[in-house]
Amino acid sequence: MPKQVVPPFPHPSGARPPAIDAKFVPAHVAIVMDGNGRWAKQRGLPRTAGHAKGEESLMDVLAGAIEIGVKHVSAYAFSTENWRRSPDEVRWLMQFNREVIHRRRDELDAMGVKIIWSGRNPRMWRTVAKELVDAERQSADNTVLTLQFCMNYGGRAELVDAAKRIAQAAKEGRLNPDKLTEEKLRHFLYAPQIPDVDLFIRSSGEQRTSNFMLWQAAYAELVFLDRLWPDFDRRDLWRAIEQYAQRDRRYGGALPNQTS
Length: 260
Ligand code: IPE
Ligand code: IPE
Ligand code: MG
Fold this sequence. Notes:
Blueprint: E1 28-32, H1 36-42, H2 47-68, E2 72-79, H3 87-110, E3 113-118, H4 126-139, E4 145-153, H5 155-171, H6 182-186, E5 199-202, E6 221-224, H7 234-246
Parallel strand pairs: 1-2, 1-5, 2-4, 3-4, 5-6
Helix pairs in contact: 1-2, 2-3, 2-7, 3-4
The chain binds 3-methylbut-3-enyl trihydrogen diphosphate (IPE) (2 copies) and magnesium ion (MG).
One 3-methylbut-3-enyl trihydrogen diphosphate (IPE) binds next to helix 1.
Protein name: Isoprenyl transferase
EC number: 2.5.1.-
Enzyme class: transferase
């Protein structure tokens, strides 16, 4: 018997999602959760206080994503470039993300969230990888929302990893290089079962992608919001979705009923 799914917890203000036709709700939202350090600095706190506050933002955004009908969320938690930060901050972030997954796993599982870890194995802390793999296992049958948790993730690293596996397959005669297509390449990415990114959101006012979802976001609509991640909640997600719903997605084509 399928398990009983717990509905997402409401926003404390009682806010409800805007009425948007389901066909204008993005299936896959990618989020660069940025601005933790600046949030902390504004308050005279250590950078880590901003990261800590961001946990609540993510939980609220996931609840809001479920409420409005988003099916996949990719959250950028630690990039392949974030190793450049101080050893103290890196250590803190590794431990923190492990604890977040551990602490939130049951709650997310109850809401029907399927957790997937995307990122590189080498260098990743074994204990964090184990926590993520356990969470993947526990939540594997969930269908309400997929959370692609990107830890030690880089878009270029993902493409290099794909290229290595493709080259290996070609060497072993399992793949004909002449027959490689975009669709086939996609299957070598970390999570090929997740569709392309429809809406790419970055908090904190920075306007760059910082190596997130390079392949998958080729035709994503980009929305940059000034709010710092620790202040971000589901209402910001909904605002971004309202902007998304107004966009014309042309994919290189032309609008119908327009002559040249
Ligand atoms: C995003 O916040 C979190 C991670 C990159 C892990 P930052 O730590 O980048 O915060 P800012 O950009 O310095 O404000
Ligand atoms: C991107 O943010 C990475 C994550 C949010 C995990 P950064 O703060 O690391 O990106 P840059 O350095 O501003 O490009
Ligand atoms: Mg940043």
